[in-house]
Specification:
The protein is an alpha/beta fold and 543 residues long. 43% of the residues lie in helices and 11% in strands. The strands form three sheets. The protein has a seven-stranded mixed beta sheet with strand order 11-10-9-12-13-14-15, sandwiched between helices. Strands 4-6-5-7-8 form a five-stranded parallel beta sheet, sandwiched between helices. It has a four-stranded mixed beta sheet with strand order 1-2-3-16, with no helix packed on it. α2 crosses α4, α18 crosses α20 and α20 packs across α21. The longest helix is centred in the middle third of the chain and has 21 residues. The chain is globular. It starts with a strand and ends with a strand.
Amino acid sequence: MKTYEYFHIHDDRIEVDLDGIALLRLTLTNKGTAYTLEERRALRLEGLLPPAVSTLDQQVERIRIGFWKQPTPILKYQFLRQLQDRMEVLFYAFLARYLNDTLPIVYTPTVGEAVQKFSAMYQTSRGLSVSIENVDRTPELLTNYPFRDVRMIVATDSSAILGIGDQGYGGLAIPIGKLALYTVGAGVAPYYTMPTALDVGTDRAHLLDDPGYLGVRARRLRGEAYFHFMDQFVDAVHARWPGAILQWEDLAKDAAFDVLARYRKRHPSFNDDIQGTGAVALAGLRSACRLRGRSLADETIVVYGAGAGGGGVAAAIRDGLARDGVARPEDRIFVLDSKGLLVEGRAMEAYKRPFAKPGPAMGLLETIRASRTTVLLGLSGQPGTFTQEIAAAMAANAERPIIFPLSNPTSACEATPADLLAWTGGRALVAAGSPFPDTAQGNNAFIFPGLGQGSILARAREVTDGMVAEAAEALAAYTAERHPGRIYPPVEDLGEVSIHVTTAVIRRAVADGVAAADLPADLPAYVRDRFWQPRYLPVVKSR
């Protein structure tokens, strides 16, 4: 039995401490019109619901009709968020049934707009809010959280949301969306999760001046004050849930690498922007190279954008080349930030220095021509920067150039796939970070749910670089086996992809000596058996 605030989950039933109207407000156990007549009588629900008893399938169909009546993506988002806050099982059943239609709504690109409108659209509480006003009481805040067995935490300080930057408290929408994908994509039960806003202030003036803004009205903490805040949060989490996996999300580049290095051995944690983005990009490159009949070692790669995502991608490719036996792999990778090509002798953050080149600074077009680039990856958040001239230069260097505009959301994408294909005469191999018609999507959702679930099931004491690398290789292997003509699998395969990734991550955790779980020989069956499915269990009153 698993015990939570107001309810207790058994394999064959749920016991609840509440009844009557209060039970209908308990989102994780609320079945709405699916309560049987016997349950309605026993739980004091008779007369509070319509007479007809519905099945879960009938409820899903009713939601489908309501979802498609919403005229805009943001209204569809709000419709689904309201559903999640009423009936969690139904929410996940609908997502699982219509993942291709709902993923762009609960995640990128629509979640970017939801972040910007978070305060205006706010309706009810979800997750944990830790701010500069209460961080010293974080141990108490964690006891207030209704779930007693938290295993997966996604936490953001909202300083670098997608391609739209500092969004203050509104960034909480990102962990909410990410954890929905953990559940529907990798089977992490929703009562094991905790979306968390780390409100360290905001430097966005329009938020500070907005009377409706729900976050702290203060400038962002930086330096020692920022890390003192983070120390208090991590220490409190570790004391209460030492095995919970902590995913850092949307931290600015000046903090993301430092936070990862500071805490990854103190508490099992990883940064999706750095490691998840790197893994999904590496997997896509392996698939694209396979489609060309070449290996990664044959390519010359330009990474355009050197924030957390770009730095993570460059590092993942470097490490992938090293595993392939390439000496001095960083020589094959050219990284550009807002000042141009990273070159020796100029000031830059420590994580960029391994990729600095001797010689003069150059812009993107000059770098492509001088290096004979065959792979171009966009992580700049700057729309329209992959121009027709850039595409033509890539096409001059390779019969089938690989061009991935990976920035999110759609409005921040470096070029549309349709334009890149038109400008290269259909020769380019193209994948994007956001959903575009008839285009492979390099979505982090192919990596982070399996990486997190694998870490949970292994009871990993640390999320190692090897575990992240195995996630990338598992995604590439899955694509080659199940979809040999594609760069990435279709979104509908997310659950199967995650099972594949989860299994590989567990094996690597064991090999790296960080797994504390007692694991069986048949890992795929073990993983499948622990994949939470949205279904209604009988509900009874606690004795």
